[in-house]
């Protein structure tokens, strides 16, 4: 029974990740206020901006309301993700990320609260439905109000400057997020079409994570060049922590792990939760988990690349065999891209496991190339989806 596939909607996955992140952050603030732990403010800003970007890119859910998935919305989500990633990487880049987070949590949540109260298909309809929908009203109201409180705390001073208030509000906010995740899972199990409505159209969950990981790699590789030239400070702890959170969301959303895909069973979900927790701690508490997580990321990249390469060779993949025309050319490109990604991933893993094996400047170019290849892979997958949607005789 433990290996049975578990159906968890994507929105619930992101809320679970955010709730875990908030509970850990509140606990860290409690220790910070007593001088027991250091605190990396930029990691807090960057992590939550990336979570907001995930909701926007994967679901079309923005801090100002639900929107139809479109190229414009994808670009907006990518921009928020880029700000969050840069905030995590560069310790001196904090004013704009903090202001952006205040705007998204403050005015954004006020707009969401107003929409919930006055929209005919929300508050009034939920009251009429009763049951779990009354819990939805309570949980949504709590999340929106607490978001505005967080924005107020950030606007009046950084969270550690008000440790008592910040600790209580953030922990309660995390509990409210987990409560909302539980309520939504119950509703989506009863009305599965409601969950699919947000996940369909636009990029799939896998494709969205490829897009986000590609952006992450390009920014990381680009930033490593001035960092290695001594022109910028850099937080390796937040970098590896954010990568662990991305791994976690992939595992929770689709069962895709760094060493290959698995059925989304309870053990995979448990592993995803552990990855999320470790990643959050590494983002907001500098250096505490840097060495073990760096080692873990290196091993996972080496194993993932090696396993995928062995699988490709053992299956003797000939993607264009028996297929003619544009589809054959596209499958050949897909094979080449997968091969390149496996090699680049193994190079990254080797450089992590063996310090100074590859010079930092060259490593920056390799990572940026990895990100570019991921985005090219995404383009190929989108084209394949379009071809599959066309009747066979029209290809």
Average pLDDT: 84
Strands side by side in the biggest sheet: 1-2
| Shape annotation | globular
Series of H and E elements? HHEEHHHHHHHHHEEHHHH
Segments where pLDDT lies below 50 for 5+ residues? none
Q: How large a portion of the residues is in β-strands, by DSSP E?
A: under 5%
CA-based gyration radius: 22 Å
The count of helical stretches stands at 15
Largest sheet: 2 strands, antiparallel
Q: What's the number of extended β-strand segments?
A: 4
* End-to-end CA span: 43 Å
Helicity, as a percent range: over 70%
Structural class: mainly alpha
Question: In words, what does this structure look like?
Answer:
It is a single chain. With 395 residues, this protein is mostly helical. 75% of the residues lie in helices and 2% in strands. It has helices spanning 10-33, 41-59, 71-89, 95-105, 107-118, 123-129, 132-156, 163-190, 192-199, 205-228, 236-254, 266-284, 290-314, 326-353, 360-389, and strands at residues 61-62, 65-66, 256-257, 260-261. The strands form two sheets. It has a two-stranded antiparallel ribbon. Strands 3-4 form a two-stranded antiparallel ribbon. Helix 1 (10-33) runs antiparallel to helix 8. The mean pLDDT is 84.
């Amino acid at each position: 029974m433990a290996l049975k596939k578990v159906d968890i909607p994507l929105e619930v996955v992101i809320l679970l990740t955010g709730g875990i992140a908030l509970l850990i952050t509140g606990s860290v603030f409690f220790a910070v206020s007593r001088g027991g732990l250091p605190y990396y403010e930029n990691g807090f800003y960057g992590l939550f901006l990336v979570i907001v970007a995930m909701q926007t890119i994967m679901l079309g859910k923005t801090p100002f309301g639900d929107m139809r998935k479109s190229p414009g919305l994808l670009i907006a989500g990518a921009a928020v993700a880029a700000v969050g990633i840069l905030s995590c990487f560069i310790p001196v880049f904090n004013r704009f990320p903090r202001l952006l987070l205040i705007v998204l949590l403050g005015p954004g949540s006020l707009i969401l609260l107003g929409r919930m109260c006055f929209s005919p298909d929300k508050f009034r309809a939920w009251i009429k439905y009763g049951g779990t929908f009354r819990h939805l009203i309570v949980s949504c109201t709590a999340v929106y109000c607490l978001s505005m409180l967080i924005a107020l705390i950030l606007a009046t001073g950084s969270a550690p400057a008000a440790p008592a208030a910040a600790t209580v509000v953030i922990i309660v906010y995390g509990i409210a997020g987990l409560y909302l995740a539980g309520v939504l899972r119950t509703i989506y199990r009863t009305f599965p079409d409601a969950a699919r409505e947000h996940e369909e159209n636009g990029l799939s969950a896998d494709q969205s994570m490829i897009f986000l990981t590609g952006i992450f790699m390009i920014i990381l590789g680009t930033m490593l060049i001035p960092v290695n030239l001594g022109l910028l400070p850099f937080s390796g702890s937040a970098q590896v922590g954010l990568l662990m959170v991305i791994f976690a969301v992939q595992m929770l959303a689709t069962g895709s792990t760094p060493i290959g895909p698995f059925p989304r069973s309870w053990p995979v979900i448990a592993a995803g939760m552990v990855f999320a927790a470790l990643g959050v701690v590494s983002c907001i508490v500098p250096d505490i988990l840097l060495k073990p997580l760096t080692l873990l990321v290196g091993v996972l990249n080496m194993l993932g690349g090696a396993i995928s390469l062995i699988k490709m060779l053992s299956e003797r993949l000939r993607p264009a065999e028996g297929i003619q025309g544009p589809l054959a050319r596209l499958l050949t490109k897909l094979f080449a891209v997968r091969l390149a990604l496996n090699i680049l991933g193994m190079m990254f893993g080797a450089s992590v496991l063996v310090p100074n094996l590859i010079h930092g400047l060259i490593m920056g170019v390799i990572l940026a190339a990895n990100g570019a290849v991921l985005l090219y892979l995404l383009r190929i997958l989108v084209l394949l989806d379009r071809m599959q949607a066309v009747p066979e005789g029209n290809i």
